[in-house]
Structures are given as structure tokens and as C-alpha cells.
Amino acid sequence: xxxxxxxxxxxxxxxxxxxxxxxxxxxxxxxxxxxxxxxxxxxxxxxxxxxxxxxxxxxxxxxxxxxxxxxxxxxxxxxxxxxxxxxxxxxxxxxxxxxxxxxxxxxxxxxxxxxxxxxxxxxxxxxxxxxxxxxxxxxxxxxxxxxxxxxxxxxxxxxxxxxxxxxxxxxxxxxxxxxxxxxxxxxxxxxxxxxxxxxxxxxxxxxxxxxxxxxxxxxxxxxxxxxxxxxxxxxxxxxxxxxxxxxxxxxxxxxxxxxxxxxxxxxxxxxxxxxxxxxxxx
Length: 282
Description:
The chain is α+β, with helices and mostly antiparallel strands. It has two domains: about 5-140, Fructose-1,6-Bisphosphatase, Chain A, domain 1 (2-Layer Sandwich), CATH 3.30.540.10; about 150-260, D-Maltodextrin-Binding Protein, domain 2 (3-Layer(aba) Sandwich), CATH 3.40.190. It is about 35% helix and about 20% strand. The protein contains eight helices and 13 strands. The strands form two sheets. Strands 2-1-3-4-5-6-7-8 form an eight-stranded mixed β-sheet, sandwiched between helices. It has a five-stranded mixed β-sheet with strand order 10-9-11-13-12, with helices on both faces. Strand 5 (about 115-120) and strand 6 (about 125-130) form a beta hairpin. Helix 1 (about 5-30) packs antiparallel against helix 2 and helix 5 (about 190-200) runs parallel beside helix 6.
């Protein structure tokens, strides 16, 4: 049986309370799909309600701590060494379309380092949590990253560039280059859960570009406490600054960087090859 610290207990209680409202709202989304206006405004309000709930409960527990929020921006607390980094609904597009794969993500940062994290998937009642130096867990089961050592055995996750996101051509090159080397590529629509699944050994790796700190804050610690590596796509530590992330075990990290990292090289795309038909470059 795992032992949760008072800090983790506060984070878990806040996540579970906010999740009750999200689950109720998610139950309404299917009914709204048929309306002309659609459920987008409704989901935005669900997101904001969850954020307000989280801020209220965490502020009550740690009144001197500031926030970095997806919707509400950044507030500096009386004790600037600490900061909550929160995504109240990671997987908004899934939620909007009635797809039951989304999560609440809460990270707790001290002097620029993640020291506690919670990712809660309320639909499947999976609570991923970690505290620095104390391991990572799902509910009460200890997590370890997968032990696979070959890319050809690996299933990796990513986030596909979409409307409003930059660098579609780069993503197509990365994907074309990597997908013929691995057992499978998945796109789930929630960065927080992708990182949690790497920590749980369900995915062997995950990479994405141009995401926000609140998408990955808690997940970074989950992977590290499960024995994995998390870097930016240059192999460094500037994840929040660049918005780029790669997570895996220690064996697969370098091979993955060679395919999707900043220094990866690709064949020139021609009319004859085209996207998805790139020749293999060893």
C-alpha cells in the first residue's frame, strides 16, 4: 500500500472534486452534439468551472502559493519559490466530441523543479500521482516505465499538428521517418495522459512540439519517478521554454532523439516521394 503525503492528499482531493463537475458536464455533451450551435461554449464553461474549483481548493490549502493556469494566466504568490501549474481539462477536443479520454493535471513546482504531480482520468477512475524521490503510482500501484530496448518493439505516442498549430511539414517528416521503425504510433489527444501512460509502461515513448507547461508539468514528474527520462527535443532541460518534450526509458531515449529530435536529419521531400513515402535513412 502506498503512502500519500499531505501535499498529495490535498492535490488528489482538489482533482476529485473538480472532476465530479467535469463528469456531469461530459454526460451532457452527447445531447449537445445535435444542436446547431454545438457544445463548444458549454465545454469552455466546463473548463472554467473546473479551474475555479481547483484554484479555490488549492488556495485554501496553500494560500501563499501562486498559479500558472491554462485559462487564468499566471499569478505570483506571496511565496514565489512555489507554483501550482494546472490544466483543468487536458483533452478538451476529446471532451468536446464525447470521447472519454481526458484528464485533470496538477503540478507543484519549487524553484523551477517539479516536486509533485497528479493526473486524474475521471472516466476510468485512474489517479496517477508522484512526489519527488518517492516514486510514481496509479491509484495504489507503483509504476515503472517499460523495459523494451528496441524501437521495433516500441509503441510511441505523439500529438498530431492540427488547425492553429505550427510546423505541419516538420511533423510529417518526423512521423514518416519514425513510423516505419516502431511497432505502432498512437495519438490520444491528451498530453498529460500520454506522459502518464509512459510512466505506466503502456507507451514506450512520447514526443510532441509546441505544447504548454500545464500540458506536461505533472506528467514530467510521473515519468521521472517511474524511472524514465524526459527532455526537450534537443536532449536538454528547456521543456517549458521550448514547449517540446520527449519521454521514454533510458535505452530508447537516444534512438528516438535521432528520429524526432531537433538535430534529426531527413531526406529531401520530392514530388516523387511525397509525405508518408519518404525513403528510409539509417
